[in-house]
Amino acid sequence: MADPEVSSFGSWKSPITSDLIVQGSIGLGGAAIVDSEVFWGEMRPAEGGRTVIVRRLVNGDVVDLTPMPFNARTRVHEYGGGESIIHRGTLYFSNFTDQRIYRVTFGDEHSRISEPEPLTPDIAVRFADGTFDVQRNRLIAVCEDHRAGAHEPSNEIVGIDVDQGGEGEVLVSGSDFYSSPKLSPDGKKIAWLSWNHPNMPWDGTELWLADIGPDGKFENPALIAGGKDESIYQPEWSPSGVLHFVSDRTGWWNLYRWTGSGASPLCPVEAEFGVPQWVFGTSTYSFVSSDKILCSVIERGTCRLALLDAQTGRLETIETPFTDISSLHVESGAAVFRGESRGERRRQRRPPALQ
């Protein structure tokens, strides 16, 4: 038996390092459900801390869509989030190293996954929080331009033709920050959030609504909610084309519906239907139908899952073992979210089909 090594107090190196502790753990990022398949991000310490976009097929198989050394992570606003979007068998994602948008194509469970192909040029520009404009075959995304060097980067919302690529056409500019571009189901209108220094998005944001003209440009932009002292969170369109959003105008982040001339509260309660927008792409509610909304609701520091009837205002709790529910998405009667219980690591959760 080897003689023990004696070291002075405070100088002994433990063989149990932080790297050893975390190398087997996986952090879960945003989840989504598309065409009955579930997608999410995995942060893997054992692979240099890179984030991998993962696909769970209908048959239960799990496959990686982003190979080594790609790292699906955006640095827009430095906090990131909203690094990927999936549309009709194609994944678009921001790669951490060069901040370019890449695309990966995939088909059914037997199809080959393509190698990542760059869509945007290798310049000092970053992208996040994209949505797909089907009618114009383009991505609409937040763009953060760092080409001014030492000066503060500019922020815009841009459109990127997925056939041509490039840095994108500026569609909205002038504010310090942007997030959440959301297209109406018919592709004729778009909503987005903006805010300015010194506000953070949970202090005060503006909700804008515009028409989309024949040339794809935004027309007739109108400020419909928010301001320096009102925080707006997660604008979202119902399946029937009605714009919804979360506002803290009462001191609580409650859900509202835009009527065309004003905002109508759906369920005025002393609870939070939104969260601070530290990162892009967060989601605390999603539509089961035009009048039924699945929600993550925070009351007294604890989160619960609930189904809101937008016509009656009734909020019905759905029992789960989780006290933190985020990244909530619904498609075709099924939901996926990231759930965590006290003392447990976060994990994906797919509840039973919604009625």
Describe the fold and architecture:
With 355 residues, this protein is mainly β. It contains 1 helix and 27 strands. It has one helix at residues 18-22, and strands at residues 27-34, 37-44, 50-56, 62-64, 84-87, 90-94, 101-105, 117-118, 125-133, 138-145, 154-161, 169-172, 177-183, 189-195, 206-212, 218-226, 232-237, 243-247, 254-258, 263-265, 285-287, 292-299, 302-309, 315-318, 324-331, 334-340, 347-349. The strands form 7 sheets. It has a 4-stranded antiparallel sheet with strand order 1-2-3-4, with no helix packed on it. Strands 5-6-7-8 form a 4-stranded antiparallel sheet, with no helix packed on it. The chain has a 4-stranded antiparallel sheet with strand order 9-10-11-12, with no helix packed on it. A hairpin with a 5-residue loop joins β2 (37-44) and β3 (50-56). The longest helix is centred in the N-terminal third of the chain and has 5 residues, at 18-22. The termini are far apart.
Mean pLDDT: 92
Structural class: mainly beta
Helix content: under 10%
Radius of gyration (Å): 22 Å
Q: Major sheet, described briefly?
A: 4 strands, antiparallel
Structure annotation, total helices:
1
Order of helices and strands: HEEEEEEEEEEEEEEEEEEEEEEEEEEE
**Strand order, sheet with most strands:** 1-2-3-4
Distance linking N and C termini? 66 Å
From the spread of the alpha carbons, the general shape counts as globular
Q: How much of the polypeptide forms β-strand, as a percent range?
A: over 45%
| Total beta strands | 27
- Regions with little confidence, pLDDT below 50 for 5+ residues: 16-23
